[in-house]
Design a protein that fits this description.
Elements (H helix, E strand, L loop, with lengths): L12 H12 L14 E5 L5 H10 L5 E6 L2 H13 L5 E5 L10 E6 L23 E6 L3 H9 L6 E4 L5 H7 L1 H4 L4 E7 L5 H10 L2 E9 L3 E8 L1
Parallel strand pairs: 1-2, 1-6, 2-3, 6-7
Antiparallel strand pairs: 4-5, 7-9, 8-9
């Protein structure tokens, strides 16, 4: 990355699509204050490009955070990108968030493409199927317990959420963790959940909708901040 030396590798075609969104269209940029970010969480981390973006914007190697993905191959690729950027205090986790509360494991459906895997085996409307679903069992993650174990009572300045429909339960199952969060960058998936329902849930938890960063036919990206 010019100016910072942050780097990432591209082993999957889908990574090129993600890098275009994060680094060239700068979809998340308005929601990130580089001077304020020291701690973060990435839910649905894919190959870990959100950490690369934060490293680039903040010029920090001491960022602390948690990155969660239900696909073990994506967790391994995240580890590579974290090492490449010397982000030694960022924890990659193989697990599932937004599952039913209290469960140890949850069902998850992987696709051959590393985009679109979900708790909900429903193809995105209007788009060609990305292959057959493969059902797997994934450990459920308690965000608050995991955070406190590694970072104590530190606040989390920003959480990125892109979990293919699991956002409809995430803010109920992990509401204790979100009490320590200042900003949320959320991708919602219209064929599974309505953004208006998420707005109402987050408003009850002390967040306001700041701006719709992107709104396309089947999904969108919204920025919420603590009131």
């Amino acid at each position: 990355m010019p100016g910072s030396g942050a780097r990432y590798r591209v082993r999957y075609l889908e990574t090129m699509l993600l890098s275009e969104e994060l680094f060239y269209r700068n979809v998340y940029l308005k929601a990130i204050d580089p001077a304020q970010v020291t701690h973060f969480v990435d839910l649905g981390s894919n190959v870990g490009l959100f950490a690369v973006l934060l490293s680039h914007l903040t010029r920090r190697k001491d960022l602390r955070g948690i990155m969660v993905d239900a696909n073990p191959d994506m967790v391994n690729e995240t580890r590579w990108n974290l090492r490449a950027n010397q982000l030694l205090d960022v924890l990659p986790v193989h697990g599932l968030v937004g599952a039913e509360s209290g469960a140890d494991h949850g069902e998850f459906y992987l696709l051959p493409s590393n985009l679109g895997s979900s708790q909900f085996p429903v193809y995105e409307p209007g788009k060609p199927p990305k292959g057959k679903w493969t059902k797997v069992s994934v450990p459920c993650i308690d965000l608050e317990a995991t955070w406190k174990k590694h970072f104590g009572d530190a606040r989390c300045q920003v959480v990125k959420v892109d979990i293919e429909g699991s956002e409809k339960t995430l803010f109920h199952t992990d509401c204790e963790f979100f009490k320590r969060v200042d900003n949320i960058i959320l991708e919602w998936h219209k064929w599974i959940v309505k953004r208006e329902d998420i707005d109402a849930t987050l408003q009850e938890q002390g967040f306001r909708l700041v701006e719709i960063l992107e709104d396309i036919e089947t999904s969108g990206i919204a920025w919420y901040a603590r009131c």
